[in-house]
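Re-running the complex after MR caught last week's input typo. The corrected sequence lines follow. Everything else is unchanged.
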Amino acid sequence: MSTVETTVKAPANVKLPIYMDDHATTQMDPRVLGAMMPYFSGKFGNAASRNHSFGWEAEQAVEHAREQVAKLIGATAKEIIFTSGATESNNLAIKGIAEMYRERGNHIITQVTEHKAVLDACKRLEKYGYRVTYLPVKADGLIDIEDLKRAMDDKTILVSIMFANNEIGVIQPIAEIGKLCRERNIIFHTDAVQAVGKIPVDVNAMNIDCLSLTGHKIYGPKGCGALYVRRRNPRVQISAQIDGGGHERGMRSGTLNVPGIVGLGQACEIAGQEMAAEAERLGKLRDKLKSKLESNLDYVHVNGSMEHRLPANLNVSFVYVEGESLLMGINDVAVSSGSACTSASLEPSYVLKALGLGDDVAHSSIRFGLGRFNTEAEVDYVADKVIDVVQKLRELSPLYEMVKEGIDISKIEWQAH
Amino acid sequence: MAYSDKVIDHYNNPRNVGQLDKSQSEVGTGLVGAPECGDVMRLQIRVNPETQVIEEAKFKTFGCGSAIASSSLATEWVKGKTVSEAMQIKNTDIVKELALPPVKIHCSVLAEDAIRAAIGDWKKKNGVTETAEATASVAH
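Corrected-run output:
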């Protein structure tokens, strides 16, 4: 009798389940939690309370965190606006700039593999009469700078291109985009959620005018993010999207989430100190995972550029094996799939489709996101387990059998249901 | 999403995995679904020409755990049934047996299609007409 149930056992030094989905969220660093704790109870003041020590204490903590966040991206503290996370930061940047610069123009440029927080904000603006260009990406996931040049016109007010992609980890040519935007006096916003704290980001060297980041991708808390808004050369203005008490220099009203902000600041400081060593360590582990998979399995397709990629990301398709069935076989390992079956919409990943991959390859994809707390023993175990389950599922796959027999499955007239 | 114990059992230990020689006249092959949709099922039956009883069934499936379980279950169910009895298997029976959630109903539909396609292929090969099959089913 055939069996899919894996016989690969975890060694004693590997604790199950293993988390390897760091593009979704990260485990909070205990050092971050330690910094936050006092601000939940004793130090509970409202940072906007100007006339007692509770307020001063909270304000001081917030301003310290503002410095910590700014330092990580080469900004100044006054350029950091705290938000509830990157979805809010992206909405605030895109809608706030569109509204503020409406008289200058109504054209926005973005690209197809952006996060939904960017794409859907742009779609809403289209309803209000803005024109949006969605640049395609090449097979490696990168935009073509020439496409961007061609898309720019005298009505273009904003370019919003993500720093690194959340599914395939591909890093866009941010400095080139920034230079181009600066030359043409167009505001450049980047959703840098996956890049900040993982690879060097410098808003001045890269001519970034606006940048979104969040705490929970960098071992900090959920529900707390920031938007960098350039104050000089040029000064960028943003129309507030939430009205109220005029916090955050009038750009984002609402009582500040002091413990969250303290955590975000601490997470940024640790990331700044440990980024170089961590990137090197995780890059080696990622490469080991990739080479183990590739040397033991055929038809392994890496999605997106390996050259321009976050060190801890690996997105691969195990062709002829459906992604969800693979996840089911490795159920003590937390990873993601671009398979339709794992999404509510029953559509495979739009990011993978944008690379020009067939839906069948998109259905077979697995995203590994390594992080600070993963070990080499875990990577070895995950690789062995994935290899075992893929081999077993391929014994079950009519497509793999046909391909092995030399049948061109693209020539078959499939009856889609 | 939590899978039912039966889905997990069929996934871990799929029944009747394999291939029959499709060039043989007593073998019917059904290949349904499409790689782009994330599900392809191949279900094959070997039919006794005298009794029209399905004596052997094999499958291979590219798809999610529920698709694998649905096709594995389908091979178990068709075995030992006559062709006309097997035609009576409904996707809703598979949904019930495996406790499939609404989002996985299409997996059961595909398994029913696979059974029908395999029987259809066998009939075509053996020149069995719909009328003859109707008579046969009356006889049982």
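None of the earlier attempt is carried over here. Residues 49 and 365 of chain A are 51 Å apart (CA to CA). The longest strand of chain A covers residues 313-318.
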